[in-house]
Amino acid sequence: MGIIDLNAIDGGECAAAAEEKAGVLCLELWHACAGPLVSLPRKGSVVVYLPQGHIEQTVGEESRRARTVFDAPPHVFCRVIDVQLRAEVATDEVYAQLSLVAEGEDLEQRLREGMTNADADEDETDDIGKSASLGTPHMFCKTLTASDTSTHGGFSVPRRAAEDCFPPLDYKQQRPSQELVTKDLHGTEWRFRHIYRGQPRRHLLTTGWSAFVNKKKLVSGDAVLFMRGDNGELRLGIRRAAQLKNTVHSSPLYDQTMNLNSLSTVAGALSTKSMFHILYNPRASPSDYIIPYWKFSKRFNYPFSVGMRFKMCFETEDAAERRCTGVITGIGDIDPIRWPGSKWRCLMVRWDDDMDRSRTNRVSPWEIELSGSVSSSNSFASISKRTKISLPSVKADIPVPGGRDFSDFGESLRFQKVLQGQEIIGLRTSYDGNYASSHQSSSDVNNLGNGVGVMFGNSDTSYKSMGFGESLQFHKVLQGQEIFPLEAPHNSSPSSVLMFQQGSTHVPCNQSMHGVNDRDRVDGISYCGSREPSRVARTGRGGCKLFGFHLTNAPATSEVELTLSGSPLSNEMNMEDRSVGHSEAKVSAVYALCSIPI
Amino acid sequence: MGIIDLNAIDGGECAAAAEEKAGVLCLELWHACAGPLVSLPRKGSVVVYLPQGHIEQTVGEESRRARTVFDAPPHVFCRVIDVQLRAEVATDEVYAQLSLVAEGEDLEQRLREGMTNADADEDETDDIGKSASLGTPHMFCKTLTASDTSTHGGFSVPRRAAEDCFPPLDYKQQRPSQELVTKDLHGTEWRFRHIYRGQPRRHLLTTGWSAFVNKKKLVSGDAVLFMRGDNGELRLGIRRAAQLKNTVHSSPLYDQTMNLNSLSTVAGALSTKSMFHILYNPRASPSDYIIPYWKFSKRFNYPFSVGMRFKMCFETEDAAERRCTGVITGIGDIDPIRWPGSKWRCLMVRWDDDMDRSRTNRVSPWEIELSGSVSSSNSFASISKRTKISLPSVKADIPVPGGRDFSDFGESLRFQKVLQGQEIIGLRTSYDGNYASSHQSSSDVNNLGNGVGVMFGNSDTSYKSMGFGESLQFHKVLQGQEIFPLEAPHNSSPSSVLMFQQGSTHVPCNQSMHGVNDRDRVDGISYCGSREPSRVARTGRGGCKLFGFHLTNAPATSEVELTLSGSPLSNEMNMEDRSVGHSEAKVSAVYALCSIPI
DNA sequence: TTGTGGGCCCATGGCCGACAA
DNA sequence: TTGTCGGCCATGGGCCCACAA
């Protein structure tokens, strides 16, 4: 099985005309699967690449490493050399491989000088797929019901959809039926029995449907797309419900790390202005980190201020577009230490309809439209009238003297006060001891515990050092469980000790086990520390001690690296990890911090 | 599920006495699964480590790299710091993690001076497991029949085995039954319904058995072991039939590369005399590369000569020991370039019973016992009488002046004449061009083609340089196909050009795709070049050109690294490899050469 | 003594219309 | 118009003994 070239629209490379047509169909299918909100940049156009967002969406070891070595500006202007449409073999998830080359700084200079319209062509996004799909309306998308995915029955085809997309049946027959031959994004063939029966009569897919559901691991809530080309060829795609996409190995990240440029390679390519590749999954995250130049430049110097109202489009669960409104509650870099001046999700917002609690409270300027005045520049008088909440405005670019200090963000940033203030002081300690040398090496660990620690604090206090003599008791660390977020203590005293606590806001976190095959993969681990909020608990005998942990300042996600020590035989630790067979184990996890209340 | 510490025999670290007992049981179980021929060195003893054999058993990228950088003597004397018994999570395959430290050269010096009995204790192997299992005969091992593994029925327990290992049943009842609770090497619990029924009555495992077979992916021919500890606790293990163990990811090699010291790290540790770890699977290969010192030293300077007869033990398919006899047909280093003076599989042999064609025709001196005179040193007079074939004896240690020349091995080594003569002259060229820069970089490729090349030849000729202007036409490169061995030309002219040719001796070769998950893994590729033996063919348009290849002198295996160039859209190349999406692809493969006739 | 196969029961998959939202 | 349910049948898993090697 090979990966079908979804990009044959360019022609030239593809000799056979039939294949080219299939390519066009695939291109449409790709966009259909990607959803209405996804648009890709055109080949040859200029985009803005935000490494910050790229790292944020990259999970695991690769991201961890990149976060420390990535020394690139927050906004990189790139020329799009090539756009390749792809689909995950395992999940059918669509993604694009973008080949980019960093542009010279003159372009950026022009932008900073206010020449925002230079080289800005609003039409530069790749709307081929969209317009093409408008030209061929023989497509439908249905969110699967419980009955559709049950083993008990088949797939109920909406009448309009069947009449539109499937070859017509002879309705004069008692139970007209036919066999549908379809191909997915990979070119794999799927055959279904299409029958028109029942009382009242309806279109159903029976034989073959169950196998499809099983193979694609579809669950109710996922959506299937059927698409008929002009030549009558049927294609089908799937669009999964937003769910656990965080299986590292089923995501394009895998390729990213293994076969293409790793993040560190990207960093190198940026500095040398050579080409690099990005596997870009626009559905993986609501915030894009590849932005058309015109879109970015229009917003770069826009005078946002707290209180402004705005609109923003989301994709609803049934893959439809939905407009939401909200108000800007704060402005400020999400990571002023590492990415000062970045616009990546620099706007803090509150939504008018708070029904969806999980929605992000940080957006990037180019994601939103200002209410009332969409494209014009300075007509926010009307916006000011609507302002209901008055919060102190914060200057966007915060100076970072010495690279280690940072300013007070004001009250509007209070919710991230503690966590963003954390910084690493050389804690990346790997202890590869073993039975033979563990005793002599334990002194090193103790040194680490006493001397080095995580520095944290905020502008109200000086840095506090937390030693590592403290240890956490680890309870069951079992396969399939989830990792809980690091929570700040409930009392806001700056001297409180960070702790691991079982919380309600848990983020399914796939531990990145480098190259582990599917059978052995650790899908998630869970741990919880003391339940008392004030102080971490000392472990008794047998448990695993926390010898160190490590926090980074990456936006909206943080990372903890635990060095555990303890007998794997103990009841208090049990982990599907071969390295636990040794006396030490290291656990690295990345999880979101953005939803932590303080 | 965690990895049970199988090594609790040491005590001390493990607090609970019950767990310690379980550890003892696991140790026995480990040895039972490993088979009767496997013995591990004792902690603290001295062994001889043969990097050559280690590399030979390590497949893939890691081995490829190690083969070029490993700059260690062929025999390294090491102190065993620790021995950890392990079992593969995926396959239950047993292996051991050995922690070794290279000893000073004085020990080796003593050996070379003939003090073969110094520090040589024949009792130094770890026979705890064996003797313990002799002390607890409550164990049985049964090779699974078709009925045992069928979904139709359960597991038929041999009567003696059931009476020996299982708790007694009340035979007065109509159909006595009980539930057996067993644990495997990982501590995972398996419950079976044990019933005594049928006409005639017999012991059966019914409920639970099928799940076990499915989960462990047992097939008929595999064997299961049941073992009852003194406390009545039941353990079970499996011993798979020799089969496709060549799934890279299911082998301990994975850990080797990822979590522990890689081979290159071992090379470093050897030079600095620091500790290194080896994941040692004694069942993976018939030849051990970790040898007890006494065993090695007894044979190191032994005056082997062609014609000597010997005995050797093998494990038969039903896990029993079997003695085979043969005659030495030649003596010589398997790789005089890289490992001069190595004793690793330096004896060429012919077996008396040629029923098993696949048996190796090279053995190491310590693997065999000389017929008639086993332990005494110089009584090979009787052996000489038996000599039937007279071949010229070859001196074992061949001088390698300048590190690049080599001597004629004599007629007995003729079969490896051409291939062993090859050597690399700095060919490891990786071309990571891309669309943007491929044109300007092509000159580099041409430079490579004209200037650098593989040097090959033998003692009869001077070195011949083969340029890389030549190119091979690649036909279908498809998933699932196999790679064919590199064959020397059929005419023995030393100026012949090495070529890729479709041959009868193909070796299933797993391409090592670093960290690829199971679905995407390239299981094998095939290629064939021109069918005319004298000259490689020039490719026409569209095909893939061979820009370079690379041969190493590793024993019994060789390696070719191909740098391909060509459009992946062309009909002549199609590969399940995403990197082919670029203009270049690199293919690396390792395969055996030992069975190539010339 | 034990490997294989047939008999039998039952759980599940899967196709159907009934019914109602 | 279409989601869910009960009816119904086919298939296969799994427990039983018969028979024979």
TrEMBL record, chains A, B:
* Alphabetized UniProt keyword annotations: Auxin signaling pathway, DNA-binding, Nucleus, Transcription, Transcription regulation
Molecular-function GO terms, alphabetical:
DNA binding
Q: What InterPro entries has UniProt attached to this entry?
A: ARF_dom, ARF_plant, B3_DNA-bd, DNA-bd_pseudobarrel_sf
Q: What is its main location?
A: nucleus
User: Would I find Transcription among this entry's keywords?
Assistant: yes
Q: Name one GO biological process term.
A: regulation of DNA-templated transcription
Give all residue intervals belonging to the TF-B3 domain.
140-242
Instruction: Report the function annotation for this chain.
Output: Auxin response factors (ARFs) are transcriptional factors that bind specifically to the DNA sequence 5'-TGTCTC-3' found in the auxin-responsive promoter elements (AuxREs).
- Give the multimer and partner information: Homodimers and heterodimers.
Q: Describe the family membership recorded for this protein in Swiss-Prot or TrEMBL.
A: Belongs to the ARF family.
Name of the molecule in the record: Auxin response factor
